[in-house]
Amino acid sequence: MGCGSSVFVTSDTQSHATERMIRAALLIQRWYRRRLTWMEAKRQCHWAIFQKIEYAGEQDQHKLHQFFTTCLEVFPRCQSGSVLPSMHSEGDQNIEIEEDYSGPHLQFPLTVQSLYSMLEGFKTGMVLHARYVVQLLCHVKALLKTQDNIRQASTTLSREITICGDIHGKFDDLLVILHKVLSLTACNPIVTCCISVTLHVFMQNNLPSSENPVVFNGDFVDRGPFSVEVVLVLFTLLLLYPNDVYLNRGNHEDYLMNMRYRTHSLRLQCLLLSSCIPDSRYGFTKEICVKYKHHRRLVGEMFRDVFRWLPLGCLIDGKVLVVHGGVSRETDIEYVQNIKRAKYVSLFKPLGINKRDVDQMQEWQQVLDLLWSDPQTSDGCKPNDRRGSGTCFGPDVSQFVLSHNGIELLVRSHQCKQDGFEYTHKGKVLTVFSASSYFGPGSNLGAYVKISSDLKVRCVQFQAGQMRPKVNIRERVSAVEEAVVGELKEQLIASKHSLLAKYRQHDIDDTGLLSVSLWAALTAEVTQLNVPWRTLYRRLVNVNSMGLVDYQTSMDATQVVLQNNQRQPVVTEALYRKRGDLEMIFRCIDKDNSGFLTINEFEEACSVLSRHTNVEFPPDYARDLANSMDFDNDGKVCFNEFLECFRIVDKEAGRVSLRKQSLDNSPVQ
């Protein structure tokens, strides 16, 4: 009848098929878990490299103690007595508000509407007028002068207090904190658009008050391009709620720190732009010079004057100590309360301190430890070699200091943590960091801490400025890896001739080849960066079929050149590596913050740098270099142009990358 044949599946066949499916599922699961573990390991490795590069920069900064001293002695403008003129609230009267100024207007005393007006202006990319900035800073300084070194906070009324860590000029992170952690989902590459998304919600939530006190634990500025906006909002909150907002000084509230800038690779710059993450190339001083072009000297000196009056910490209910860095075995709260903190305009090398005076040195060290120290896993207390200042304190030191001062918990910041927070020393020390994606897209979460009246701690994590609403771990790791490779390549290029000399010294047969392990060891020795070079060596150098590093072709591919000046490549590389130091010298010499130096001043700056770096500058090199940058033959050098004239040349591909160190498209007054 045309009936088809029936197919019977035995139970053995079904069991075998099921077993194969389970095995396949387990195999996929095992592969997926291994893949995730491998990607997480790569992410942590890249994150560690960024952290080591950051610490190396801070360590180098503190190795410059004698260098800074030389600058302060050679250029008397930096003397604390002459740098900070007598500022009065009337000092802004000479600053006229232009008719075409469309930014926010402030009236004193400030109101909450003043804060909203500022935020609306910042949302559209406006810059607060210099007149209002000076007025605001005068009022803030007057208030800070009335506050103790260690302020007392209480949870009696609020039942809970919020503690925020480093913000570093990331305005979107600040808004997330203020409106109770609303994650930004906008993916517009312009950060101001991200700000507009959060502004409405921010206004719907509670501002700091007696029921909602907030502690901001230092490092408000530097690295992010919105440092001015961040610190102005915080100062406005302080004036509005002086008893409910606590601002602690961080190691970046220091004018010598602000004079330097941190440079990221061109790859990272592109990533930052495309991912809504603020570009972290710039120092606070440079940001002020761009945004307040005509009043930069007055605004810069006012900020410098206010920063030195910031309190050093706060004590919550007498049981929780909040300081930016940490403690040492000598830390004593009662002693710190009696320190005259305003004299420490900079902690790098405070002027007027006699090294032979034990009391003066002890006082300086106490302040330095509070702002620069880090916890360590082992017992004891030793100098903080990673940063070059402060101490590394162990669990025994934490226990001693806490018990000696009757404290139960130490909350500090100062270190980027992948989860935004971290407990150490058996729960006695809590680190909180509030700048998310600090080293690159997805590199870390931000966090803030809520502490209740019964000392229960609740850590809240957040992520601001994500690249897209949904980004998987592979994309995050790839983005950070690109940034890491760019950073390390820049380190190799900047030390090209020193590296080649070292490689050839160990390449006895002059083959141009080295083993991977030897290449990594020599590279770490020359660059002074103890990072896992072997992890990314295939992305950094050429490798032949035998697995050996072809250092000759790798290093020949690129070089650093100075626009209009092709002589002395070794000196050019030294200038490129030390351009942060050179900018700091320029800032010291440039009395009116005009951005111009005479040719003689430029030569003097190069001479100071030469003595510091032990790199011999030929007598005519600095003058020839200065003349090459004196485009209009007026005998002056625009050092901003000097910082922009470095080029990294890819000779094989014929490409030239211009290293620009300016705030492109930034609003300027």
What does this structure look like?
The chain has a six-stranded mixed beta sheet with strand order 1-5-6-10-12-11. It has a five-stranded mixed beta sheet with strand order 4-3-2-13-14. 44% of the residues are buried. By secondary structure, the protein is α/β, with parallel strands linked by helices. The chain is globular. Helix 1 (11-63) runs parallel beside helix 16 and helix 5 (130-144) packs parallel to helix 12. Mean pLDDT is 76; it is low at 75-90, 181-205, 262-281, 562-568 and 647-669. The protein contains 25 helices and 22 strands. Strand 16 and strand 17 form a beta hairpin.
Distance between the termini: 95 Å
List the total number of helices. Answer: 25
Poorly predicted regions: 75-90, 181-205, 262-281, 562-568, 647-669
Quantity of strands, as a count: 22
Main beta-sheet strand count, sense and barrel state = 6 strands, mixed
The radius of gyration over CA amounts to 27 Å
Percent of residues in beta strands: 5-15%
Oligomeric assembly: single chain
Summarize the amount of helix as a percent range: 40-55%
Please tell me what the overall shape is: globular
Based on secondary structure, the structural category is alpha/beta
What is the topology, as strand order, of the major beta sheet? 1-5-6-10-12-11
pLDDT averaged over residues:
76
Topology:
Elements: H1 11-63, H2 65-74, H3 80-83, H4 112-123, H5 130-144, E1 150-153, E2 160-164, H6 171-178, H7 191-204, E3 214-216, H8 227-240, E4 245-247, H9 255-259, H10 266-274, H11 284-291, H12 296-307, E5 313-316, E6 320-322, H13 333-337, H14 358-372, E7 374-375, E8 381-383, E9 391-393, H15 395-404, E10 409-412, E11 421-424, E12 429-432, E13 446-452, E14 457-462, H16 473-494, H17 496-506, E15 513-514, H18 516-527, H19 537-540, E16 542-543, E17 549-550, H20 551-556, E18 558-562, H21 569-577, H22 579-589, E19 596-598, H23 599-613, H24 621-629, E20 636-638, H25 639-644, E21 646-650, E22 655-658
Parallel strand pairs: 1-5, 2-3, 3-4, 6-10, 7-9, 10-12
Antiparallel strand pairs: 2-13, 5-6, 8-9, 11-12, 13-14, 15-17, 16-17, 18-21, 19-20, 21-22
Helix pairs in contact: 1-16, 4-7, 4-8, 5-8, 5-12, 6-7, 10-16, 11-12, 17-18, 22-23, 23-24
